[in-house]
Write a structure and sequence with these properties.
This protein has about 180 residues and is an alpha+beta fold. It has 5 helices and 9 strands, in the order E-E-E-E-H-E-H-E-H-E-E-E-H-H. Strand 3 and strand 4 (about 50-55) form a beta hairpin.
């Protein structure tokens, strides 16, 4: 059977010396700007929350490299249906890493200028062929799906999942499975 997976970061506050190994700076949380950061890979099947792998993320690690390690590990242990990520992973290197490993993914698109124009000025619902330019000259190509949920919220998703016209709003329900990684913490 195929399983759905979610990838996310979680931080553990750190109150020691900010120059200690593997300490990450960030937003203030519980009285400190520093933390240990972990990237986790979780199975998010209905009623099941299972951490498949967790890796520390240090200041010199890149998101695409740690995502690659998680996907390679997952492929050794499960058959992947979909991988859900939050908009913090919306960049060409991560998307290319997922596609290079033939993984179907779904994540909200960050509201950059190009995405805003498609959401605000474009039709809803809509499915666009989208090319994200990378500074490294390796663009990421995927579908940008603009949809409206049942409460009238319009959002844009980056995906390589086959989405049929008329079912764009179903991505909100599908993406809701990602919440399983949050409840696993």
């Amino acid at each position: 059977n195929e399983v759905d997976l979610a990838i996310d970061f979680t931080d553990t506050p750190y109150f020691g010396n900010q120059n200690d190994p593997m300490i990450m700076g960030g937003k203030k949380h519980k009285g400190t700007h520093f933390s240990y950061r972990f990237i986790t890979l979780n199975v998010v099947v209905d009623g099941i929350r299972f951490t498949l792998k967790a890796l520390p993320r240090g200041p010199l690690d890149t998101d695409d490299k740690v995502v690659k390690k998680l996907i390679e590990y997952a492929k050794q242990h499960v058959r992947i249906r979909y991988v859900f990520l939050d908009r913090g992973f919306f960049n060409s290197k991560v998307i290319n890493t997922l596609q290079d490993h033939n993984v179907k993914f779904l994540m909200p698109a960050s509201a950059n200028q190009k995405v805003k124009e498609l959401v605000v000025k474009g039709e809803v619902p809509a499915i666009h062929d989208y090319e994200m330019q990378a500074r490294s000259k390796h663009p990421a190509c995927f579908k940008l799906v603009v949809a409206e949920d049942d409460k009238g919220l319009v959002g844009a998703f980056a995906t390589n999942i086959d989405v049929e016209r008329g079912s764009e709003a179903d991505l909100f329900t599908l993406y809701g499975k990602r919440w399983g990684i949050e409840t696993s913490y």
